[in-house]
C-alpha cells in the first residue's frame, strides 16, 4: 500500500513538473515576442498566447483537484544536506538559479508559510473585515458593483457616442460668469460699487507748480466736473448749469473758470 502511494506521488510530481515546464516555455515565448516582435505583433496573436496560458493553468488545476492525485500539502520536505560549496547538479536542475543549497536560501525556498510581515498584514485585514457589519459590507458591495457597471458601460459604448458626448459638453460649457457681467453692467450704467471721489476745489495761491505761467497769458484756476445737481451739492462742489447745445450732441458738463492775468504784474518782469 505504501509503495503504491509512493508510485502515485512520483507519477503526479513528474506530470506536474512537465505541465509547469510547458507553462514556463509558453511564458518565455510570449515575453520574447513582446520584446523583439512588438512592431509586428497583432492583437489576435496576443489573445492566442493568453488563451494558451489560460488553458495550461486550467490543466494544472484539474490535475491538482483530481481524486487520484495525492495531497501535496500533507507531504513534508526536509533538507538532507546543506553545503556552502557549489553544486553543479543543483545548478543544472534549477537552470543556474540555485547554485548553492545553503542555510541562507533554505528558509526562502522551503518556506510553507508567508513572511512574518505578510502574515501580520493578513491578520490585520482579517480583523478589519470581521469588524464590518453585514449591512455596511452589503452597501460597499453594491457601491462597487455600481461603479464597475458604469465603467463597463462606458467601455462598451462606441467611440462615436463618446465623441458626441464630449463635443456636447464642450458646447454647453459656459465661457462667462453671469454675476461678473451683471456687476459690470451695473457699474457702467448706474455707478454701483464705484467709490465717490471729491472733485478738486479752488487752488490756493502760492502753491508750487500752480502759479502764473506767462505774463499776459491766461491762468487756469479751477476745473470742476459737474454731474447731477443733487450729487454735486451733496459732495460739496459747485453746481454747473446744463448748457443747451446742438441737437444730437451731449451737452458738456465741464465748467472752466479762467481768470485773465493781463492786468497782473509778473513777478519777474524787468
From TrEMBL:
InterPro entries the record matches: Mediatior_Med8_fun/met (IPR019364)
A Pfam family that the UniProt record links to this protein: Med8
Any one Gene Ontology BP term: regulation of transcription by RNA polymerase II
Amino acid composition bias (Polar residues), ranges on this chain: 168-178, 253-263
Cited function: Component of the Mediator complex, a coactivator involved in the regulated transcription of nearly all RNA polymerase II-dependent genes. Mediator functions as a bridge to convey information from gene-specific regulatory proteins to the basal RNA polymerase II transcription machinery. Mediator is recruited to promoters by direct interactions with regulatory proteins and serves as a scaffold for the assembly of a functional preinitiation complex with RNA polymerase II and the general transcription factors.
Region Disordered: start-end pairs: 158-178, 229-270
Cellular component terms per the entry's GO annotation: core mediator complex; mediator complex
Subcellular location: Nucleus
GO molecular function, one term: RNA polymerase II cis-regulatory region sequence-specific DNA binding
Family note: Belongs to the Mediator complex subunit 8 family.
Keywords annotated in UniProt: Activator, Nucleus, Transcription, Transcription regulation
Main location: nucleus
Subunit structure of this chain's protein: Component of the Mediator complex.
Annotated signal peptide: none
Name this protein carries in UniProt: Mediator of RNA polymerase II transcription subunit 8
